[in-house]
């Protein structure tokens, strides 16, 4: 399929092909580079970073524990309308970044966001 796309676009117009890092894409990229000597396959940098963060979460106990806690906090807040309204009041309308299903980078973005709003969250949860 990738070869057909290169044909359609024109080999002279394609220098690099960037795909996911899955084994099937890697193999397809290598096959394409063998056939078309002026074309380069490169794994997606974002996907590489996401896989690295996935490994951190799976293999570093403190990361796994902290991310699980962050997910619990955001799930708790976003599943209760009253808390969500309070969050928006205490953070002046800003939202927390919530974890996505397949992207491990969002786990770290969520932790960063929780850290950024740490004071506001502590004030919110200790307020009357």
Structure description:
- The structure is a single chain.
- The protein has 128 residues and is mainly alpha-helical.
- The protein folds into two domains: 42 residues, no CATH class; 80 residues, no CATH class.
- 66% of the residues lie in helices and 6% in strands.
- It has seven helices and two strands, in the order H-E-H-E-H-H-H-H-H.
- Strands 1-2 form a two-stranded parallel ribbon.
- The radius of gyration is 22 Å and the shape is elongated.
Number of strands: 2
Q: What gross morphology would you assign?
A: elongated
Relative strand content: 5-15%
Low-pLDDT segments, ≥5 res: none
List the quaternary state of the chains: single chain
Provide a count of the helices. Answer: 7
Estimate nothing, just give the exact number of structural domains.
2
Structural class: mainly alpha
Major β-sheet strand ordering: 1-2
- H and E string: HEHEHHHHH
Observed structural traits:
mainly alpha; 128 residues; 2 strands; single chain; two-stranded parallel sheet
